[in-house]
Amino acid sequence: MAEAAPLHRYRSHTCGALRSDDIGQTARISGWVHRVRDHGGLLFIDLRDHYGITQVVADPDSPAFKMAEKVRSEWVIRVDGKTRKRPDGTTNADLPTGEIELFAAEIEVLSESKELPVPVFGEPEYPEDLRLTYRFLDLRRESLHKIIMTRLAITRSIRARMHDKGFNEFPTPILTASSPEGARDFLVPSRIHPGKFYALPQAPQQYKQLLMVSGFDRYFQIAPCFRDEDPRADRLPGEFYQLDLEMSFVEQEDVFSTMEPVIRDLFVEFAAGRPVTEKFPRIPHETAIAKYGSDKPDLRNPIEMCDVSEHFRGSGFKVFAGMLEKDPKVRIWAIPAPTGGSRAFCDRMNGWAQKEGQPGLGYIFWREEEGAAGAGPVAKNVGPDRAAAIQKQCGLKTGDACFFVAGDPAKFYKFAGLARDEIGRELKLVKEGQFAFAWIVDFPFYEWNEEDKKVDFSHNPFSMPKGGKDALEAAEKAGQDAILGLKANQYDLVCNGYELASGSIRNHLPETMVKAFEITGLTREDVESKFGGLYKAFQFGAPPHGGMAAGIERMVMLLTNCKTVREVALFPMNQQANDLLMNAPAEATQKQLRELHIRVAAPEKK
User: Fold this and answer.
1) Which of 134, 151, 418, 576 has the most CB atoms lying inside 10 A of its own CB?
2) What are the Cα distances from residue 448, in Å, to 10, 284, 453, 473, 485?
3) Whole-model pTM?
4) Percent helix / strand / coil, the chain, rounded to 5
5) Residue among 427, 430, 432 at smallest CA distance from 348
6) Cα–Cα distance between 493 and 284 in angstroms, integer?
7) Is 415 exposed, middle or buried (0-12, 13-18, 19+ CB in 10 A)?
8) Spatial CB neighbours of 491, under 8 Å, sequence gap ≥ 6
9) Are 571 and 528 in contact (CB under 8 A)?
10) Percent of the chain, pLDDT > 90?
11) Which is it for the CA torsion 582, 588, 592, 593, positive or negative?
């Protein structure tokens, strides 16, 4: 009879592999001690690895019992034993290995663990900075481990879907030139070129356009991007990843028809049954601002704002009426609040507005006793007819309320959007447990930079303006208002109040490119200097092209119900952009600085 093959040094099975079919077999497993339980002299060890958990049992008659008494949480051990059926009534349906247990014959300690600074078992709340300092321990937690593996599954799915759509994955350089993507660059000093710097890419924008000029037609990449900007909840500090893509010979509709199924079906795959918008609506930027107070509206919230200026013009509510009379830019926006028709709720919202730095929120609420005339100071001053007209325009009924913001919409729309969000949350109007998508289109091409007192690009400087060079020249002749009124072939994909993707049809014509930058104050020479690669390439036959980039961390954050993108990254920095695990950023040595021909002029400590 042939001898049984010797067991592998560390394992014949993973901790997630043994099943009832293995009962009676000898097995060897290795992993981390998840927890130890003493049941009256019978010791149970839950042994954990990447694949799962197996229950190990040792009794006083077992030769492994003495070692089992010594092991502690998070020690790494090897266990040899016989697979047996769990006693009746002790099976664990929540574990794939829940029908069996391994009766230990031998236990070897492979590595001991000190007392843990952060727990691994369970999901206790611990300070984030402590968790990030010991991220390697934090990642052992079941929930976080699952999130990271879900992220990998999502990126695998993205790659497969992009290949199915005829895209090819191209790597682009990490050391590159500085580019005006809207944030500060991370600069990398060159040792062999004293006084000169590379930049880490804010995005592969110019390279992917150059690939289109090179004739590759459909590019994509799960691209690392680097931006030296202040941290925020929906973007990792320092670096993040995006699904970056570009297509040749396309118009906006081609990008939408190609990418909408990719994103929608990806979300359906990982949404765990939660509804996903079937057909993404297209909302013009102006409409999004006017209805939702945001260019990334949360469409799970049914509230739509409306302009009720005419109901206040010449009314008895002198504050609003006077503002309308003095300044043609002033508008009065109404924020409906279905089911919010009580003085207590209106007062609460008024208090919230004051905490946001506003004088308050005017309001009308409708109760049975007043009917359509409404209640509250605003209703008393505008009179019953105007209050009824506001109620009708906003589609409100008895038991509802309406709040008002007034002024130049360009200055108050963000606050109005925050108020809409707050009302939706407070009144539980937001339809949780779904993914509400929309394309935001027709972004303004330019905006006014108040700090520098000049016209700047509103979004992506490489976008094609609607109407092309002719529209740019006509607007330049007509003046600043016309320039600021130009629209771009620019679009964003939004979901549940987050911007998931941004893209555009690109400006592929060199003279149109020069004219677009000239309006912002740059010269032809500046364009040649700053964007020489693109400018040069466009003079040798550039196809019309366009694309977009979608944030990987944001998509994973939504699909895994996480609150911040830091939860879905392996080794994120904290909110102050510090890598607490690797102690970065850190000071360079004098030797390093000398080699790079750099002298540090740090600000004086206060």
Assistant:
1) 151
2) 65, 20, 7, 18, 11
3) 0.93
4) 35, 25, 40
5) 427
6) 12
7) middle
8) 252, 255, 256, 439, 440, 441, 443, 502, 503, 504, 548
9) no
10) 87
11) positive
